[in-house]
Design goal:
The complex is a heterodimer of chains A (264) and B (385).
Chain A: H1 3-29, H2 31-35, H3 52-59, H4 61-94, H5 100-108, H6 115-129, H7 135-160, H8 163-171, H9 176-204, H10 208-213, H11 221-231, H12 236-261
Chain B: H1 8-14, E1 23-32, E2 35-45, E3 50-54, H2 61-69, E4 76-81, E5 84-85, E6 96-99, H3 111-121, H4 126-139, H5 155-167, E7 173-177, H6 185-202, E8 206-210, H7 213-219, E9 222-227, E10 230-235, H8 237-242, H9 247-252, E11 257-265, E12 271-275, E13 278-282, H10 284-290, E14 297-302, E15 308-310, E16 319-332, E17 335-342, E18 347-353, E19 366-372, E20 377-380
Parallel strand pairs in B: 3-8, 3-9, 6-7, 7-8
Antiparallel strand pairs in B: 1-2, 1-4, 4-5, 9-10, 11-12, 11-14, 12-13, 14-20, 15-19, 16-17, 16-19, 17-18
The chains are: A mainly alpha (264), B alpha+beta (385).
């Protein structure tokens, strides 16, 4: 039968797929065992087993402030980008005004413009405004980078939502604000949450803009890693990397869960 | 058509009832670009009336409904609900209930929460909401389904919840946009009766949109036939069926045999229709209603159940005849339907009670068809295209 030649073909495809996945993941995953090493330098394969580098990460002042700074910037970015991005998506998909697609393009442009260009532009401006090297400056910059993810996710939810639901809400006596709060928002919530998670991740592992907009007194985790790797190659970096990885992966799993919950 | 004051459309609108109408549309118009979707219509809906807008898609009936709901602003004209001008009032302040074709139930709320929604928006006390929701669910016979989510309900149940939601706040007007369009035939028929029952029990004024003429006939007190953005005719189902004002209406409501030809006035009352050597008498009443003059392109409309196959009996004065041959004999239970072919190739159909069918007619048999002159309706023939 025709299946007889399909069988080896499928095995070949599976092998190729597995190889590709390995190629993509290996550089990332190699860092995980390295973080548990007993040795004093970054090495592979790791020697022995120890949690000392995690302990160092949490007790060292520079590392722990880096973590706290990253969390603060990430959460503020997620909050700001989610509010602005949701409103922008609403305007773009529901509003009727000239230049709608231009606005859409501008909002999505941070996806295309080279990050280093954005970084230099913001650095120049923020130094003038005296908000370079501050939480505010970095949050504003990261919000711009994260905005497209929120807009795209929320727009998709809005487009798949039945417009008659909003008409029904209005018909039943809900003014636009209450229609949004009681009908639109609950229905697009999975898209909003997905956007917020993307926004947080965007900020959480962002390094280019952060290098420009941080200072010796205020560093986020990725910037701290960048600085330390250039000076000492101590396995704490591996522990920090693993931590970054775990946080990001967890959030992505949450995202998958949220998407599953979304009503069709 | 609508400019003629003798038309049913006008006489109905002009008869001023002492009670204020529930809905008045005046010169209502909606343009999309250069196209007039609704081309300036006038309509009055009486309180407690069930009025259906019937017409093919694109005839302006749904656009009209959406303007009444406030989802769309008219290009010109006015909408008055219960004596208040609502033309510029946003939908959430119109106090009008609407049932959508796709139900439009809020998927994240239970059936009971859906029904409670309009009451919550009106900030009614919790105890009152609870009671009215229970009553409304009871009204649509889904009292035990309040805690279900829409996705756990069948299409028919969802539409009944949507109906409960649209009436629970006692709106001044109930709008329905092809509410049964997504349901299968059997369910549609039972829900038609359900909607009639609910609207009668509540004394609701209903503006109903459909393209299904049978549905319109079953449900409505009056029907407005829409064509190309205008109301072609307004009247009861009986009016429209027995006295269609145009070929379009005759074709829209019920089945019709349409005999096109040239009309000639015949001195006194009535006249003649001629076509390719055939000549049919037009009754005085039909001729007067049509207001056609000699030489007009016209159509004689005869309903299938008004025609019968003659069994060689003598043809009297008050009768028209035509010769045809049998094409198909269809058994419809109580009735038998004959598809007949005329010499011109045109098909006509005849419907007779089954008992009358003892002839054993076969395909190809020649027959003579007769009908009473008074059963022929005369309308102008606008021609094709």
């Amino acid at each position: 039968m025709s299946d007889s030649w399909r069988q080896p073909r499928r095995i070949l495809m599976a092998a190729l797929g597995a190889l590709t996945v390995f190629y993509l993941l290996a550089p990332t995953l190699v860092i995980v065992p390295m973080s548990f090493t007993n040795a004093q330098i970054l090495s592979f394969p790791p020697e022995g087993f120890s949690l000392q580098w995690y302990e160092h990460m949490l007790t060292d002042r520079q590392w722990s402030t880096g973590i706290v700074n990253s969390l603060i910037v990430g959460l503020l970015t997620a909050a700001l980008a989610t509010v602005l991005g949701t409103l922008a998506a609403l305007g773009i998909s529901r509003g009727r005004f000239p230049g709608r697609s231009l606005v859409n393009g501008l909002v999505l442009s941070p996806l295309i413009v080279p990050v280093v260009v954005i970084a230099i532009g913001m650095f120049g401006l923020f130094v003038q405004w005296k908000i370079s090297g501050s939480v505010l400056g970095l949050v504003l910059a990261h919000t711009a980078l994260a905005l497209p993810f929120v807009v795209v996710n929320v727009s998709t939810s809005l487009q798949t939502m039945d417009r008659n639901l909003e008409l029904a809400a209005a018909n039943l006596g809900a003014d636009p604000r209450r229609s949004f709060m009681h009908v639109t928002l609950p229905i697009i919530l999975p898209g909003v949450v997905a956007g917020a998670i993307f926004a947080f991740i965007t900020s959480w592992d962002e390094v280019v803009v952060a290098i420009f907009l941080t200072s010796a007194r205020f560093r986020t985790l990725p910037v701290e890693m960048w600085e330390q790797v250039r000076q000492v190659v101590d396995p704490t970096v591996a522990a920090v990397s693993t931590t970054l990885l775990v946080v990001t992966t967890t959030l992505l799993l949450v995202l998958v869960f949220v998407r599953r919950q979304a009503p069709a | 058509m609508t400019t003629d004051p003798s038309m049913p459309a006008r006489s109905a609108a002009a008869s001023t009832s002492p009670e204020r109408p529930a809905l008045v549309l005046r010169g209502l118009r909606k343009d999309f670009g250069t196209i007039a979707a609704v081309d300036g219509i006038d309509l009055e809906v009486r309180r407690g009336e069930f009025l259906t807008l019937l017409g093919p898609s694109g005839s302006g009936k749904t656009t009209t409904l959406r303007m009444v709901a406030g989802f769309m602003a008219p290009t010109s004209g006015s909408i008055e609900i219960d004596g208040t001008d609502m033309t510029r009032v946003p939908p959430y302040r119109r106090d009008v209930g609407m049932v959508f074709q796709n139900y439009a139930l809020f998927p994240h709320m239970t059936a009971a929460d859906n029904v409670a929604f309009p009451l919550r928006m009106r900030r009614r006390p919790a105890a009152e909401i609870k009671k009215r929701v229970a009553d409304a669910l009871e009204l649509v016979k889904l009292g035990s389904h309040g805690d279900r989510y829409p996705r756990q309900l069948s299409g028919g149940q969802q539409q009944r919840i949507a109906l409960a939601r649209a009436v629970v706040f006692e709106p001044r007007l109930l709008l329905m946009d092809e509410p049964l369009g997504a349901l299968d035939r059997k369910l549609r028929e039972s829900l038609q009766l359900e909607i009639i029952r609910v609207s009668r029990e509540l004394g609701a004024t209903v503006l109903y949109v459909t393209h299904d003429q049978e549905e319109a006939l079953v449900m409505s007190d009056r029907i407005a036939i829409f064509s190309m953005g205008l109301i072609e005719q307004l009247g009861s189902g009986e009016d429209l069926y027995d006295r269609p004002a145009s070929l379009f209406v005759a074709d829209c409501i019920g089945e019709s045999n349409i005999l096109r030809g040239t009309y000639e006035v015949d001195g006194g009352a009535g006249g003649w229709m001629t076509r390719e050597g055939s000549r049919w008498r037009v009754g005085g009443a039909a001729a007067a209603r049509s207001e056609l003059s000699s030489g007009a392109a016209a159509a004689l409309v005869v309903r299938p159940e008004r025609m019968r196959i003659l069994d060689g009996e003598a043809v009297t004065d008050g009768m028209n005849t035509l010769d045809a041959s049998v094409d198909e004999v269809l058994y419809l239970g109580p009735d038998t339907k004959y598809q007949l072919a005329l010499g011109s190739g045109q098909r006509i159909s005849i419907r007779e009670p089954r008992e009358a069918n003892a002839r054993g007619l076969q395909r190809g048999d020649p027959v003579r068809v007769g009908w009473s002159v008074d059963d022929g309706l005369l309308v102008a023939d606008p021609g094709k295209g």
